[in-house]
Amino acid sequence: MVTTLTLTDTSRTSPDAASGACCAPLVREAADPQTAAELARVFKALGDPTRVRLLSIVAAHDGGEACVCDLTEPVGLSQPTVSHHLKLMVDAGLLTREQRGKWAYYSVVPGALNRLGVLLTEATG
């Protein structure tokens, strides 16, 4: 038995069919290529559960900063691996790094996550 699938053209019955438009118009500017690349870098940095945990741990520390030596045990990774994750978040603009002697201290960049929301919700370009 052969079944034939018939697709129905719904554009003729849509509310915008009379105007020839198939979709609703944009109500604000979409992200330009540079902004899209910036957002992708930040989302890539946050696309790993370990990095999300590290960001959360840094933000939860007293004073909003944490030494790399305090971050290895909670995530169960070696110091070089944790440092690599932290570097990616520094490069993405989510954390700052300050060297104090042999230890590096990390802080959440003030407003970094708010700026992300703004880039996604307000006009760009």
Structural summary, described in words:
- The protein is α+β, with helices and mostly antiparallel strands and 125 residues long.
- It has one domain: Arc Repressor Mutant, subunit A (Orthogonal Bundle).
- Helix content is 42%, strand content 12%.
- Strands 1-3-2 form a three-stranded antiparallel β-sheet, with helices on one face.
- The longest helix has 13 residues.
- It starts with 32 loop residues before the first helix and ends with a helix.
- The N terminus is likely disordered.
Give the helix/strand layout:
Elements: H1 33-45, H2 49-60, E1 65-67, H3 72-75, H4 79-91, E2 95-100, E3 103-108, H5 112-121
Antiparallel strand pairs: 1-3, 2-3
Helix pairs in contact: 2-4
Strand order of the largest sheet: 1-3-2
What is the end-to-end distance?
55 Å
Helix content: 40-55%
Low-confidence stretches: 1-14
Shape: elongated
CATH class: Mainly Alpha
Question: Biggest β-sheet: count, sense, barrel?
Answer: 3 strands, antiparallel
Features:
alpha+beta; three-stranded antiparallel β-sheet; 125 residues; elongated; Arc Repressor Mutant, subunit A; disordered N terminus; 3 strands
Kindly summarize this structure in a few lines.
The protein has 125 residues and is α+β, with helices and mostly antiparallel strands. It has five helices and three strands. The protein has a single domain, classed as Orthogonal Bundle (Arc Repressor Mutant, subunit A).
